Every structure is written in structure tokens, then in C-alpha cells.
Amino acid sequence: MSQRQVLQGVMSLLRPLLLDVVPTIQQTAALALGRLANYNDDLAEAVVKGDILPQLLCSLSEQNRFYKKAAAFVLRAVGKHSPQLAQAVVQCGALEMLVICLEDFDPGVKEAASWALGYIARHNSELSQAVVDAGAVPLLVLCIQEPEIALKRIAASTLSDISKHSPELAQTVVDAGAIAHLAQMILNPDAKLKRQVLSALSQIAKHSVDLAELVVEAEIFPVVLTCLKDSDEYVKKNGATLIREIAKHTPELSQLIVNAGGVAAVIDCIGSCRGTVRLPGIMMLGYVAAHSENLSMAVIVSKGIPPLCACLIEEHEDHIKAAAAWALGQVGRHTPEHARAVAVANVLPTLLAMYMDTRSSEDLQMKTKKALKNILQKCTYLPALEPLLHDAPPNIMKHIVGQFSKVLPHDSKARRLFVTTGGLKKVQEIKAEPGSLLQEYINTINNCYPEEIVRYYSPGYSEILLERVENYHPVL
Questions:
Q1: CA distance 116 to 89
Q2: Between the CA of residue 199 and those of 171, 189, 204, 277, 387, what are the distances in Å?
Q3: HSE-CB for 452 with a 13 A CA cutoff
């Protein structure tokens, strides 16, 4: 007898117990089914196929609070596994019953119902819309105002799960007045509640400028910056995510964050933590810097470059390194001054090494290449470019040589230095396609020097000299 057959046998025994005259037996049977369904999707499917859900929901509204909690647990346990199983829960009319449970007098019943609704809504926008259409949102907003912390947490989490899919779904949450109540809880001492509140506000703010502005208008600044110093890593991460989701939309919203001290606070946060907690902060700095020269300068002045460089070197995950590379590229891409600020941090060789490392992920190689290109095209600080001449592949080399060809014609000191540090010699060794952009740049550089100097540093010139020595017959 297979395990599946045994479990189906167990379910067929539990099913009639849901209609038992003794309430305790009903509740225990429901709990047992919930635990089975929670275990894996095969068992959850067996609950659906065994027609247990309609029986579970039969006369639910007249049942006591213990049975309601157990029933909501079963619905959550089935719906959590996949969109298909969640759809089966919706089709048997469970949403209407769960919404009725949200109005129950007992906070535990509300909590169980809210939890089940969240597990259904998180799968996709269609299921989320079904939860909205059932009338859950206004009741969830009432739940976050209840005194019980556990209920607040689950209701905020469910609002977050509804909001995440689309601007329209987020708007229904906003229309129910959620933002003001969520914003008031940013300073709540309970870390788990703060996590959910920050997540819900992030999921609303991410969709559009209008929604982000509504979140900002709830006066979350500078209050939300305290979350970046929280002892709970997830509060830090979700706080930085919220700031990132607002900053990304417009220069004006980014400027507002700068004015509130947000950039400095995020930089401190990145410096004080490790791993994925850093990621939203890194991206936030990149978004702010991308908007304009002034905002990028705000990141530089707030000493944002050293922690970004540290992330690039210290982190083991490629996606975090890629984000740091992208952010540095956004900081350095505006003017020679911006590029120099990044270049003097000695980060260009690191970016180049990561780009050329075959172990780097495709995304990391792409991001480091783009960052190098962004910074190199503006960088006129030659001491930072020179080390790259010896290692860079041709597609990067053209940007480096291009910058030398812009600066050397106008700077005699740089021309001398370029010879003494071996730069000119290196340029003569580059094999460029005739007529290519790289060849043009090399010609421009060579035109800055007397012909005999260029010849002297060309490959093979020493052999020519030696040959001349050999063939030289002194006149005695």
C-alpha cells in the first residue's frame, strides 16, 4: 500500500468527522487536515480532490471560534502551495467565508482569516483581485488598527501581498485609507510588525510617482530613517527598500530624501551590515546618483563611494557585487569630476578584474563592463587610467586610450609622465585594426610626441638599433 493511498484513507476517515455533533471532534479533524495539507502540495491536492473544502465551509458562519480558526488554517495550508491550489480555494467560495471571519469578534479568528487571504493573494494579480473583490481590503485596514500586535502584523502582511502585483491593486489599498495607519506604525517597538509595515508601504510606493508621493505625504521622513539603525536586519532591509522605491521615481523625490538626511543614513546602514541587507541601500544610492549631477554629487559628498567599493570587494554574492558596480557607474557617469571621485577610490582595476574573471556571472560581467564604460568615458584623471592599460581587453581599451587621446594634447606634464610610466610604450604594443576608432586614438597620442620618441618605444625598435650597431663600421 503506497503512502498516497494511506493518506487518502486517512482523509476519507477525517472527512465525516467535520460534520460530527461534538464541536471538539470537528475542530480536531479540521486541524489534522490542515497539518496534512500544510506538509506538501500532494496532500493539499488530496484535500481538494477529496471534496473536503465545501464540507469544511458548510455552516462555517455558525461555528465557534476554534472551528473557524482551524478552517482558516486548512484554507491557508491548501492555498499556500501554488496558484492552482489557491484558485481551488477561491472556487469553493472560501473568500466570502474568510471575509466574514475578518469581522469576527475574536482577534484570533481575524488573524487566521487574514493569514489565509494573504497566502491566496500573494500568488498573482488575478487571485489578489479576487481577494479585493470579496471586500477584504477595508476590513484588513480595520484589522491593522486593532490593539493585538499579531493581528496587526498579519493584516499588514496581507495588504503588502495584495499591493505588490499592480498599481491598480495598490490603489485599492490606498483608497481604503491604509497609508496613514501604516505610517503611524513605523515607530512601533515590535520588529516583526515594523517589517510588515515597511514592506506594505514599499509595495505601494514602487508602482508609480503618484503612489510614492502619497506615501511621502504621510510624513514618513525623517521617521523612517530610524529603521536603518534598527537591531533587526529585516527592519533595516525593508526600511532601505522603502526609501529605494521612492527614490527611483523622480529627481524631486530623491532630492526630498537627500534633504531629510536619507542618503547619509543609507550610507551608514550599508557600512554597518553585511550580505543581502545591503542590497536595497546600494540600489537606492545608484538610483539617486542616476537622476542628476547634483544628486550624484550628494552621494559623493556624503562619502558614499568607499562603502560601495567595500561592497564590491567584501561581498561573496555576484548579484550584490553587480549592484555595487552599477551604483558606482551611476555615480561616475556625469562629469570628469564625478568620474575622478570614483577613480581615485582605486575601484577601476577591481571592476576590470571582475569583468575579466570567467567565474563572474553574466550579469556581473555586464554590469562591471557598463560601469567601466560609464566612468571611463568621463574620466580625465590619468593616474587612475594608467594601470588599466596593461590588462584591459580591446573593447575596454578603446575607452581608456580614448581618454588619453583627449587629455595628452593639452597637458605637457601628463605627456612626460605618460612616457616615464611606460604608458607610451604600452600604447605602441596595442594591435589595433587599421581605420578603427582605437587606431585613431593611438594616432592622436603618437602625434603628441616627436617621431623618434614614438619609434624608440615601438616594439622591435631595440632590435633595429642593435642591428645598426652590428652593421656599423667605425671609421678608424
A1: 10
A2: 16, 16, 9, 14, 44
A3: 1
**Measured between alpha carbons, how far is 132 from 161 in angstroms, rounded to an integer?**
11
Q: Which residues of 21-57 are buried (b: 16+ CB within 10 A; e: fewer)?
A: eeeeebbbbbbbbbebbbeeeebbbbbbebebbebbb
Span 111-130, mean pLDDT?
A: 93
88, amino acid identity:
A
Of 113 and 33, the one with more pLDDT: 113
Beta carbons of 288 and 247 less than 8 angstroms apart: yes
Largest CA distance in the chain: 130
Whether omega before 434 lies within 30 degrees of 0, making that bond cis, reads: no
Q: What gap in Å lies between CA 161 and CA 155, rounded to an integer?
A: 10
Q: Please measure the distance between the N-terminal and C-terminal CA atoms of the chain and give it in whole angstroms.
A: 111
- Grid cell digits, residue 440: 585613431
Q: How far apart are CA 195 and CA 230, in angstroms?
A: 11
pLDDT at 421: 82
> Between these two residues, 179 and 49, which has the higher pLDDT value?
179
Instruction: Please name which of 384, 365, 382, 375 lies closest in space to residue 445, comparing C-alpha atoms.
Output: 382
pLDDT of residue 462: 66
330/322 Cα distance (integer angstroms): 12
On whether the CB atoms of residues 293 and 334 are closer than 8 A, the answer is yes
Q: C-alpha dihedral over 422, 424, 426, 431, to 10 degrees?
A: -170
